[in-house]
Specification:
Distance between the termini of chain B: 69 Å
Number of helices of chain B: 14
Helix content of chain B: over 70%
Radius of gyration of chain A: 24 Å
Distance between the termini of chain A: 30 Å
Strand order of the largest sheet of chain B: 1-2
Largest sheet of chain A: none
Helix content of chain A: over 70%
Largest interface: A-B, 81 and 78 residues
Number of strands of chain A: 0
Strand content of chain B: under 5%
Shape of chain A: globular
Strand content of chain A: under 5%
Structural class of chain A: mainly alpha
Order of helices and strands of chain A: HHHHHHHHHHHH
Oligomer: heterodimer
Chain lengths: ~270, ~300
């Protein structure tokens, strides 16, 4: 079978290929080197001195780190759940209802997406300080300020994802259900929500990652008692650079990789 | 009796329908309480003054805004714009090439694979990516260590030639790759390049390939076609990519904080210092609002240019 000569062959041009693979190298080499050196048996982290898992041991036994990580997980979970609900309500009302000031509402919804993170962090700090939000709540309620901030910047993203999916909704399904005398609520429950399942999953993963990854906004809303994973790593970085950080980073990268694969798997499943 | 039941049924139904409608108002309330009101507080604070260590008084003063225009802060603002702009430019060039490589690939499998390859680091925690760069760039980092080995190797050649060791290249001085503007720009490109690639890839994929084929038929080379045919047709995507890269780059805090030296401060670092160190919340608020006005202005410019 002879290969057909392609007319558009940018992807075979030498300089395009060169820059592409250089970019891949640029992206991955710091990360891969970081992961490789997490196994390096040397505190100074430069010369390879032998394979070891001791920094992973250190990382797992670091209580502060574990606490920070569990805080991050809890915040991400709660934030994701509530963001999904709020995002759905937003997307559905924009799709279904006509109401005054709709354009302004849409604009206001895009603000948390466009606003620079530092401005949002600052406003949250001032807000919670101004209304004297209690700062001595017991765990896990002391995470509430961070959770509220995370929900505020997450749910507009979820709304965008759900809205995109709603564009593809075939109204005839709804009309058929109405012909069969289903009430609005049943239509919602039996037809629209199952249809939105892929959007919920991708929106949920998006909200979860945004929350887990967030640094700036959390930096401004956290206290010494409510440290999250990125904030903890930041303070570790400022203090000293040890291979322990490599170990935790590798674990995080693997978790991210897992989440991304899950997301992809669901996407391909629903594309059929 | 029947009327009694019927009345209550319709009453309950009305309450049910009412609460159903109000549920959809919850996001609005959330936005107002936890987003718009905090922003208003910031706005009010920008007109306040520091009273003593922990309290502020609203005096409707313009002092904070005037302070922002002092040379020391103005220069930081300009430098931030310049660094974010350079970052965006580099991201545009690299992003275009990468997107073209992926989008024009005939194999769907390879296309998705390459896209995944580019996006995957993007999903990694920003702190980890920045730390990876630090590990690579610092004076005892991977680049300098390799450079050191090369240096020592070349020096040892001089030994072999019978000369004094160290005679060839002298003492090793590590490259100062970290804690300067270059490192910050490198870091910013590293973090923001995927943001640029996504919209570019989106428009390139949807581009009518027949335009390109026609251009080749008429004798234009690849680069001419690129500039005269492809770029004008994807200008929408380019604008989106520019915005989605420049705005976060301008407001970035972590990269200049971890990778920059004392003279590589950007706006966000100054703002952070006002809140966490200097305790001058009014001044920090005014700087935050100036940043927002600036970005709003840029977005407005984009819509204006779009509607022309």
């Amino acid at each position: 079978m002879s290969k057909k000569k392609l007319i558009i062959d940018y992807h075979q041009t030498w300089w395009v290929k060169f820059f592409f693979w250089s970019t891949i190298f640029f992206f991955y080499s710091p990360i891969i080197t970081l992961m490789a050196f997490s196994f390096n048996n040397s505190r100074r982290n430069i010369v390879w001195r032998g394979f070891t898992l001791k920094y992973y041991e250190k990382a797992i036994n670091n209580i502060d780190l574990l606490e920070a990580f569990s805080n991050s997980l809890i915040i991400a979970l709660v934030s994701t759940l509530i963001s999904l609900v709020l995002g759905f309500l937003t997307a559905y009302s924009l799709w279904r209802f006509k109401f005054p000031f709709k354009a302004i509402y849409e604009g206001a919804l895009s603000l948390p997406i466009v606003i620079p993170e530092i401005a949002m962090g600052v406003s949250m700090l001032i807000f919670f300080n101004q209304i004297n939000w209690p700062t001595d709540l017991s765990w896990p309620y002391n995470l509430s300020a961070i959770i509220i901030a995370h929900i505020t910047f997450s749910f507009p993203f979820v709304a965008v994802v759900i809205r995109a999916r709603l564009q593809n909704f075939n109204f005839e399904q709804e009309e058929a259900a109405m012909d069969l005398c289903a009430s609005q609520l049943r239509i919602l429950w039996d037809i629209v929500i199952p249809f939105l399942k892929p959007a919920f999953i991708s929106g949920g993963i998006l909200a979860f990652t945004l929350s887990l990854d967030d640094f700036v906004i959390t930096f401004f809303t956290s206290t010494p008692n409510t440290v999250t994973f990125p904030v903890k790593v930041y303070s570790m970085l400022r203090f000293s650079v040890t291979p322990e950080i490599n170990a935790i980073s590798t674990i995080m990268i693997l978790i991210t990789f897992l989440l991304a694969s899950l997301g992809l798997y669901y996407q391909s499943k629903f594309k059929k | 009796m029947k009327e009694f039941i019927a009345f209550h049924q319709s009453f309950l139904k009305k309450i049910f329908q009412f609460s159903l409608k109000t549920i959809f108002l919850i996001p609005t309330f959330w936005l107002i309480i936890f987003f718009l009101i905090p922003l208003t507080f910031v706005w009010i604070y920008s007109f306040s003054e520091v009273q003593d260590i922990i309290s502020f008084k609203l005096t409707w003063t313009l002092k904070n805004y005037r302070e922002a225009f002092e040379p020391v802060y103005l220069s930081i603002i300009f430098k931030s714009i310049w660094m974010a702009g350079l970052t965006t430019l580099i991201c545009l060039v690299l992003g275009l090439i990468v997107s073209i490589f992926i989008a024009f690939n005939p194999s769907k499998v390879l296309k998705n694979f390459f896209l995944l390859l580019i996006i995957l680091p993007f999903w990694t925690n920003m702190l980890i990516r920045t730390y990876a760069l630090i590990a690579v760039l610092r004076t005892t980092g991977y680049i300098n260590k390799s450079y050191n080995y090369l240096w020592d190797f070349l020096n040892s050649i001089s030994n072999f030639l019978g000369l004094d060791s160290q005679a060839l290249l002298g003492d090793f001085t590590p490259l100062n790759l970290l804690y300067n503007n270059g490192a910050v720009i490198l870091g910013l490109v590293y973090i923001h390049l995927p943001f640029m690639i996504l919209p570019l890839f989106g428009v390139l994929e949807k581009l009518e390939k027949s335009y390109i084929e026609a251009s080749f038929d008429l004798g234009a080379g690849k680069i001419t076609t690129l500039f005269k045919v492809i770029l004008p047709k994807i200008s929408e995507g380019i604008y989106a990519g520019l915005l989605i890269t420049f705005i976060p780059a301008l407001g970035s805090f972590l990269t200049p904080d971890l990778l920059g030296g004392n003279d590589s401060q950007m706006i966000a670092n100054v703002i952070e210092r006002q809140f966490k160190g200097a305790n001058d919340w009014p001044f920090g608020s005014s700087l935050s609002f100036l940043l927002m006005y600036l970005l709003f202005f840029i977005v407005a410019m984009k819509s204006l240019m779009k509607n022309k």
